[in-house]
Amino acid sequence: MRTRAGCIALLVAVLPVITQAAPLGLFRNHYPLVVSDWISISYDPNDPNGGGNGVFVASGYSNVVNISEGNSHPANFGTFALTAVIVPSSGEELSGTLLVTELDGYSNPTTLFSSSTIKDFGFCAEDMFEFLFTQEDGTLAPLGATLGIILDGRNAIGEFSEPRFDISFSGDGSATSDSFYIPEPAGVALLTLGGLGLLRRRRS
After folding, report:
1. Is 49:95 a contact under the CB 8 Å cutoff?
2. Domain range spanning residue 175?
3. DSSP assignment of 129-147, as one string?
């Protein structure tokens, strides 16, 4: 299993490339949690939909819905879809969307997490991407709650080994994701730490 220490060690090694590169430090110990698989990742720094900035896209299938520890059920190949507009020169997020659904036995979808408001974004050279969103629709978190996304590219994105956002990169569909509700005050604490990190990066 990949460790945060390994991610941070690689971050230090590539620091001169993008000085503000930093993981958010999310942990998969919150419930409800949705595990998604077969996720394809792509990024284009010149995507016209980015308004002069890059567009990051991750899409795949939800696999398991964990309501609590020991209480889970299959998601039956529901949707996992995430987009983010990212500044190529800095790796800073500008906007983003998230949709996670499950299907019932008749292939009818139920929205679990949904957002068009991204709060924060972090990453490291091990192809690990982390996001914070605000819940705007769905059954697994209250409206306005903080959602955490840990997207693991499985070290399958060779172009991102530095890491950098001024070039295109893509994964091979082997990425996985954990999407989960972060109850307060944990969400506030993460946002505070993220804001302090952003201030330090902008001052450097």
Report:
1. no
2. 32-203
3. EEEEEE--B-SSS-TT-EE
Q: Is the residue at 121 inside a domain?
A: yes
Nearest to 159 by CA among 127, 130, 131, 128: 127
Q: Is the dihedral of CA 179, 183, 184, 186 positive or negative?
A: negative
Range 174-189 average pLDDT:
83
Assigned domain for 178 exists: yes
* Per-residue pLDDT reduced to its tens digit, 123-135: 998 899 999 999 9
Q: Supply the pLDDT for residue 89.
A: 93
C-beta separation of 15 from 163 below 8 A:
no
User: Does the reported pTM lie above 0.90?
Assistant: no
Indicate the number of domains in the chain: 1
Residue 17 lies in a domain: no
Report if residue 71 sits inside a domain: yes
pLDDT digits (tens, 9 = 90+) for 9-68: 433 333 334 545 588 999 888 999 999 999 999 999 999 999 999 999 999 999 999 999
Check if the beta carbon of residue 147 is closer than 8 Å to that of residue 182: yes
Strand partners for 146: 134, 182
Q: What are the Cα distances from residue 186, in Å, to 24, 27, 165, 189?
A: 13, 11, 29, 5
d(CA 59, CA 57): 7
Whether the Cβ atoms of residue 30 and residue 186 lie closer than 8 Å to each other: yes
